[in-house]
């Protein structure tokens, strides 16, 4: 008995059957051995086979090039003797250490050092993968790189996609330049004697336990500033910006940052303190006493302060439009 | 209507609408004034707004909880439905004897009235070269492109010609970690390569499909590639990578003059 009978398509109208004679495409499923090989490749610090193959086939001219550049940028690129080669990408999922109940450890300063490290690791590993693809393509730089960060609990995901380009007539550097700026922006910087150097990140995460004094301010009927939280957010910002400067300086010369975007967030959470070795009856936070429970732990209300910034490091090479030789020198000296 | 090349797929209503349009020559378009002038400048005239749509039921596929795998049934559905919408739009353009379609927008809407139903729509403006030159693809279809009128003009002046909107889709299930694995890794700071590998695989598949499509049309390159990463409604571990861009070929030397440095006083502020 036909349960799923197709209704005749001609009922009521005299339109033709639009699907008659159409061929449907079929995709082959993936190969488990290849998946395992790719995973091993990632563990070894290199990139999966598929990524290598795409770059190689595109560079050899077997496949058309692709680029994230818009049309006006493409034209500008031609004018500047920049040749788009292939689209390149890098990704990484990084897990910050937790305990059995998915809680994160804080250091003695109540900063989430592990989580901060996870952000930097995810970024550095992804950028290195992006560079490897660019190196395979024989590129001088990756421009127009768009990134995105996502955090789910303690799992940090970073992805970056950009266009690998060749500067015609220049020696290929070992360390291709990565920039989130468009060809348009790079052209403007060059015209003014600036050179984009690197993609940089500033991130900090701090946890602030609060006692009655702060809590009461947040629930009172009066207009008042919750100064302790404000201060702590500013400290978090300082730490994040410090790291950003350091990140810029670590990867070559940097005289400033442009195109910086900034996000900050404050969240309510709980913080667990444990008694440790001593026999204290409890801890005092912000004028409030929290006694340890029988298991030697105590839960304290807290605020997370999180600060996140990304941008491009730039270096001043001259007061007039840059010469080809200057650009070449900077690229070769990059480490 | 006696044209043997008239497609067989369009409803009567669409044919009537298109016929009226070419007869009276009141063209419809979704071009802005700037775009309209620039398209004219590039040597093309707009013929009419064309569209294609497909309401598609997306099938079901059981995913393996602990395995990185492509959900081929879903990938095929996402691709086929977009292709159907695109083809119908191209057929409408054919009916207008157009050379191509610019400003194509490809949208997916999930219907509230059906759980696994999705509506795929392609809309664009059909154009024709004023000098009668042929701009159709190697498969004798009108060219398509998601570029705006401004970009279209710049592209033509720079010596490139759009061939086709090319796309690749891959719906992928990223593995969950087993409890034992999670327990082992809990106290460590480390990369979870199983996730990274799944993501790489999905992205490579989508990009390769797009590239293959462009290669089949003998394109030189693909500009303005966008990579969309969406979850649609399949849950956090199933993602769709959708790569889309305009394939181009070089047909003449660039006719653009050197631009001068202009610093606009307002930032456009466009972000990804």
What does the model show?
The complex is a heterodimer of chains A (335) and B (272). Chain A is of the alpha+beta class. Helices cover 32% and strands 32% of the residues of chain A. Chain A has 2 domains: 155 residues, Hypothetical protein apc22750. Chain B (Translation Initiation Factor IF3), CATH 3.30.110; 116 residues. In chain A, strand 3 and strand 4 form a beta hairpin. Chain A is globular. Chain B is of the alpha+beta class and 272 residues long. In chain B, helix 2 runs parallel beside helix 4. The model of chain B has no long low-confidence stretch (mean pLDDT 83). Chains A and B meet through helix 1, helix 2, strand 1, helix 3 and strand 2 of A and strand 2, helix 3, helix 4, helix 5 and strand 7 of B. Strand 1 of chain A pairs parallel with strand 8 of chain B, so a sheet runs across the interface.
Helix content of chain A: 25-40%
Order of helices and strands of chain A: HHEHEHEEEHEHHEEEEH
Listing every helix as H and every strand as E from the N terminus to the C terminus, the arrangement of chain B reads HHEEHEEEHEHEHEE
In the CATH hierarchy, the architecture of the largest domain in chain A is 2-Layer Sandwich
Which residues of chain A sit in consecutive blocks of at least 5 with pLDDT less than 50? Answer: none
CATH top level of chain B is Alpha Beta
Cα shape of chain B = globular
Would you tell me which CATH topology of chain B applies? Translation Initiation Factor IF3
């Amino acid at each position: 008995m036909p349960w799923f009978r197709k209704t005749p398509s001609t009922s009521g109208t005299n339109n033709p059957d639009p699907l008659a004679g159409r061929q449907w495409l079929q995709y082959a499923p993936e190969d488990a051995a290849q998946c395992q090989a790719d995973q091993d490749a990632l563990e070894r610090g290199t990139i999966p086979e598929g990524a290598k193959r795409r770059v190689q086939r595109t560079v050899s001219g077997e496949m058309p090039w692709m680029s994230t550049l818009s049309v006006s940028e493409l034209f500008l690129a031609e004018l500047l003797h920049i040749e788009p080669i292939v689209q390149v990408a890098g990704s990484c999922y990084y897990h910050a250490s937790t305990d059995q109940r998915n809680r994160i450890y804080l250091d003695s300063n109540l900063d989430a050092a592990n989580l901060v490290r996870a952000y930097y690791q995810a970024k550095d590993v992804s950028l290195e993968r992006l560079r490897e693809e660019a190196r395979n393509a024989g590129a001088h730089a990756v421009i127009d790189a768009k990134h995105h960060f996502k955090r789910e609990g303690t799992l940090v995901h970073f992805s970056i996609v950009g266009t690998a380009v060749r500067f015609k007539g220049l020696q290929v550097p070992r360390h291709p330049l990565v920039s989130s700026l468009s060809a348009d922006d790079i052209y403007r910087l060059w015209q003014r004697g600036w050179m984009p150097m690197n993609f940089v990140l500033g991130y900090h995460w701090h946890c602030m336990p609060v006692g009655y004094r702060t809590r009461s301010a947040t629930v009172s009927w009066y207009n008042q500033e919750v100064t302790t939280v404000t201060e702590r957010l500013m400290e978090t910002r300082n730490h994040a910006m410090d790291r950003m400067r350091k990140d810029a300086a670590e990867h070559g010369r940097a005289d400033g940052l442009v195109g910086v975007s900034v996000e900050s967030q404050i969240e309510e959470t709980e913080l667990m303190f444990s008694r440790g070795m001593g026999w204290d009856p409890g801890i005092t936070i912000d004028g409030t006493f929290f006694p340890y429970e029988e298991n030697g732990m105590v839960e304290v209300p807290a605020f997370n302060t999180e600060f996140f910034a990304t941008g491009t490091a730039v270096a001043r090479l001259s007061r007039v439009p840059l010469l080809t030789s200057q650009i070449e020198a900077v690229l070769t000296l990059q480490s | 209507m006696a044209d043997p090349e008239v497609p067989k797929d369009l409803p009567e209503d669409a044919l009537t609408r298109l016929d009226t349009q070419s007869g009276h020559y009141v063209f419809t378009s979704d071009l802005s004034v700037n775009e309209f002038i620039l398209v004219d400048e590039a040597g093309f005239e707009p013929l009419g707004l064309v569209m294609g749509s497909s309401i598609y039921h997306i099938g079901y596929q059981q995913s393996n909880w602990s395995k990185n795998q492509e959900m081929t049934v879903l990938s095929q559905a996402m691709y086929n439905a977009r292709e159907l919408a695109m083809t119908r739009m191209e057929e409408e353009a054919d009916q207008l004897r157009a050379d191509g379609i610019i400003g194509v927008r490809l949208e997916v809407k999930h219907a509230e009235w059906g759980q696994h139903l999705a509506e795929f729509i392609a809309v664009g403006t059909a154009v024709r070269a004023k000098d009668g030159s042929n701009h159709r693809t190697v498969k004798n279809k009108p060219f398509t492109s998601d570029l705006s009128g401004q970009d279209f003009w710049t592209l033509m002046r720079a010596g490139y010609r759009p061939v086709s909107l090319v796309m690749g889709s891959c719906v992928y299930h990223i593995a969950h970690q087993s409890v034992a694995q999670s327990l082992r890794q809990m106290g460590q700071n480390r990369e979870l390569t199983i996730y990274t590998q799944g993501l790489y695989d999905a992205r490579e598949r989508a990009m390769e499909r797009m590239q293959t499509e462009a290669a089949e049309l003998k394109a030189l390159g693909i500009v303005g590639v966008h990579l969309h990463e969406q979850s649609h409604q399949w849950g956090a571990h199933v993602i769709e990578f959708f790569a889309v861009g305009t394939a181009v070929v070089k047909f003449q030397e660039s006719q653009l003059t050197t631009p001068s440095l202009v610093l606009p006083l307002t930032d456009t502020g466009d972000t990804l």
